[in-house]
Amino acid sequence: MLEAPQMSPDPVNPTYAYVGAFVDELQRSGVRNVVICPGSRSTPLAMAFAAQVAIRVWMHVDERSAAYFGLGMAKQLRQPVALLCTSGTAAANFLPALVEASLTRIPLLVLTADRPHELRDNGAPQSIDQNRLFGTYAKWFVEVALPEATDAALRYIRTLAARASALTQASPAGPVHLNFPFREPLAPEPIAAQSWSQVAQRDLLAWQGRPHNRPYVEVRDTPAGAPSETTIARLAHMVRGARRGLIVVGPLDAPSLAEPLLRLAQRLGYPVLADPLSQLRCGDHDQRLILSNYDAFLRHAAFVEHAQPELVLRFGAMPTSKPLLLYLQRYAHCPLVVVDGQHGWEEPTQFASDLIHADPFALCQNLLTALDAGAGLPSPPPIDRPASGSIEYEWATAWQDADRVTRDAINAAMQDFDELFEGRVFTELAHLLPGGVMLYVGNSMPVRDLDTFFSCTREHVRIMGNRGANGIDGVVSSALGASAGAGREKPVVLVLGDLSFFHDLNGLLAARLHGLRLTIVLINNDGGGIFSFLPQAAYQEHFEQLFGTPTGLDFSHAVQMYGGRYEKAQGWEQFRKLVSEGLSGDGLQVIEVSTDRVSNVKMHRHLWKVVGEALDNETGPSVH
Q1: What pLDDT does 542 receive?
Q2: Pairing state of beta strands 140-143 and 176-181?
Q3: Were both Cys, which of 147, 291, 349, 492 would link to 18 (CB 3.0–4.6 Å)?
Q4: 352 and 388 in one domain?
Q5: Are the beta carbons of 620 and 398 closer than 8 angstroms?
Q6: Domain tally, the chain
Q7: Which run of H or E residues covers position 228?
């Protein structure tokens, strides 16, 4: 006869010992923020996070907004942020933000609660297949073992926490997905006072972690290092043989790169075409060769015809500008060297002749050193500044003149517009925003107008956007997450269109729940303004229904519901006043700039015509 199994005398709740060790190890590994969505199956993890004083909990009702909120925070902090939700479609709503995080290399630790295996694929409620739910957009996936309060299990869960946290930041950074199956009961059972004394007989490293709050596993990820001598010698040979070159810098978050990159540009006499998300348009660094109006003047056929480059060096992701892409396509035979420090493949054009996986800072520094030393090449010594009358001088000056003429022509022409013009939002902000402000910009038309109309400024303004997947979803939550990461002392301004705003209205709740400050400039043209610039606009019969998609919404009621202030700018003087109030104020403020889609297209096209005429009248040096 079999004996009945004896109950363990140890009343420790195994689930809570397990998740407690996991959360403790996360804080040891540097995780300081978790965004939690309410749910039942995730109760053990949620309660463990709430009990961990070293990790701040940010609650969000909507999972999609929550994930974008975490994305914005991780982007601002450059540190991993954890996301937690219950099982089922709650987890599926994380996907859009994870796509963005994957493509822009943002460290997110995604924790999804799940049914245990016996409740899967048999009609149990709120149960879907969550294994590899996010596909290739999660750089690592683990189906976590069921909780146990054994030494082996606790060693496992601590190791997993350290490894997962480190992997979110390992080059290339990105989201890691851990799927936690839990059996009921999900709430913690009472623990006898004497139970923890029995822990002394166990493996203390497994139960309590290592002494002095050290991580259980020390992980040191070495980012892309310095390029090889062979790579530098080849690149030095290329730049010596190309006296008419360009440096293109796309979306990039590398503050230390500006100084050596701009020294290299001066050395070579290469103009720098800087995307607004390159962080080069703002700051007190040397801006003489930085161009910010190329999106406009590269539309001018005569300039492009005579501006054939001999070499293009590109850093960062592909820039926003379509005219720049068409320019590179026109001169696809020109050597294009792409420098990617993340061992990825940031090259969608298929024009690249060389792709260098190396630290961009080290590459610029080493290339300058090689040019100083001559790198064993027979070419003449490198130039410190393009000499007047030289090919380099004429080339650089022609691009600088085009940039200046374009900027002056646009600024003058915009003064004559009777209506509010969407592009002018960014010329105004370029003058209004003081140092220390963060500018978050939505996709579709706003980021394109940012590219065209936000000129260089000496103020340190950090410009951010979700340019991985380029979606219009989650932008409000991302900006609020960035605001949370920046702290109350740093104002954040978000510029987005009405469809993006509508798509993430739920995200506004975070501003009220967490007392965040955010000034939103809402460009309201009642629909999808970008489609009016595309070929679809020629098919008027169904254009409004399928592409224009007007909503006719009055957003003031929604903003008031979330405790914000809503103002409609009647002119640019009032716009400047409202923005200034938002920067100095607190909480949520929305400034509506109401425009007309048809008129907006006409004003843009008028500006391109004005720029073309101004360039035709320019008598400065030729780019021949």
Answers
A1: 79
A2: parallel
A3: 147
A4: yes
A5: yes
A6: 3
A7: none
Please give the C-alpha separations between residue 209 and each of 79, 283, 547, 574, in angstroms, as whole numbers: 22, 44, 56, 58
Both structure tokens of 64: 């999609």
Q: What is the CA radius of gyration of the chain?
A: 27
- Statement to judge: residues 184 and 57 lie in one domain: yes
Rounded to 5°, angle at Cα 271 from 266 and 277: 105
| DSSP structural state of residue 548 | I
pTM of the predicted structure, to 2 decimals: 0.83
Q: Does residue 513 lie in a domain region?
A: yes
* pLDDT for position 196: 40
Q: Is residue 601 part of a domain?
A: no
pLDDT in tens, 16-68: 999 999 999 999 999 999 999 988 889 999 989 999 999 999 988 889 999 99
Map residue 490 onto helix, strand or coil: coil
User: What span, in angstroms and rounded, lies between the C-alpha atoms of 101 and 107?
Assistant: 7
Q: Beta strands of 444-499 (E only): which ranges?
A: 462-465, 492-497
The answer to whether the beta carbons of residues 258 and 285 sit under 8 Å apart is yes
The answer to whether the CB of 160 falls within 8 A of the CB of 178 is yes
Domain that holds residue 369: 229-409+613-617
Joined tokens for residue 565:
């202030």
Q: Point out the residues of the chain with pLDDT beneath 70.
A: 1-11, 123-124, 189-206, 210, 214-224, 343-345, 375-389, 619-624
What integer pLDDT is reported at residue 537 of this predicted model?
A: 83
Residue 278, burial from CB neighbour count under 10 angstroms (0-12, 13-18, 19+): buried
